[in-house]
Write a structure and sequence with these properties.
By secondary structure, the chain is α/β, with parallel strands linked by helices. It has eight helices and eight strands, in the order H-E-H-H-E-H-E-H-H-E-H-E-E-E-E-H. Helices cover 37% and strands 16% of the residues.
Length: 254
């Protein structure tokens, strides 16, 4: 089945957020939700040094520009960018108490970003949570229950800010899968899917929505309906010109 953009008479007149919500509700076609973050300023040719995500207004403009380049229906926003594998800056922490995680400056900034994007209403938002293993490193000495409480606080914060879905991304499948399982019930309560990405495949808890993964080779997954996520961060994979070339191949994928 070919992977194509919105077709006339179906979702052609909807914006990215509308299309994302339709897919999540089981009535849409295919939406593209890339991760474009680690080299976001360089990707859109902006000069913003250091932890750009702490400036919500600047990050909104950068991410919106990147979304335009990628023809993105939804945008991924990592809640704790410093905990991501390969992050350019050192991880935040350690944190003394699990209750403090949701109040960290980067979490406040990224949840505010999700809120601004939701208010703009043009693209969907997928909030990316750290894995339980990453959070455990941020909370030395915390019990497993405390770590799960911190995860729930993060999920609640982004969902209340307006995220349409939450995702967990990491290289360790077991860590990602256990984190998705831990947060799935809370996501259900908010009517949002919990997604997992381990770099090799993507999935949704309880298979609530079909998920395909676009890898660095640029081979589009064959989906008739669902979400296409990226296996990694496209700003570390491709230039804008290469990204556009990959997008041109989307309608030819089969």
């Amino acid at each position: 089945m070919a992977v194509r953009g919105p077709q006339p008479g179906s979702s052609a007149n909807l914006n990215g957020r509308d299309r994302t919500r339709a897919v999540l509700a089981g009535t849409g076609e295919v939406v593209f939700a890339p991760l474009a973050w680690s080299r976001l300023p360089q990707f859109v040719h902006a000069s913003v040094p250091g932890e750009f995500w702490l400036d919500t207004g600047v990050t909104q403009r950068l991410l919106t520009d990147a979304g335009d380049v990628c023809a993105a229906d939804a945008l991924a926003v990592p809640l704790l960018p410093g905990l991501r594998a390969g992050a350019a800056t050192a991880p935040a922490g350690p944190v003394g108490n699990s209750d403090e995680v949701a109040g960290l400056p980067e979490v406040l900034a990224t949840t505010a970003l999700i809120g601004r994007l939701a208010a703009a209403g043009t693209t969907g938002q997928i909030a990316e949570l750290p894995t339980l293993g990453q959070l455990a490193g941020l909370l030395p000495g915390a019990t497993a229950e405390d770590t799960e409480d911190a995860l729930s606080d993060l999920a609640r914060a982004c969902l209340e800010a307006g995220a349409d879905a939450i995702a967990v991304r990491g290289a360790d499948h077991s860590d990602v899968a256990s984190t998705v399982d831990a947060v799935a019930a809370l996501a259900d309560y908010y009517g949002a899917p919990a997604l997992g990405v381990d770099g090799q495949r993507g999935w949704a808890a309880r298979e609530s929505v079909p998920v395909g993964l676009l890898g660095q080779t640029g081979d589009w997954p064959a989906l008739a309906r669902g979400l296409i996520l990226t296996g990694g961060d496209i700003t570390s994979w491709w230039t804008p010109a290469k990204t556009r070339a990959v997008l041109r191949q989307r309608g030819e994928a089969g």
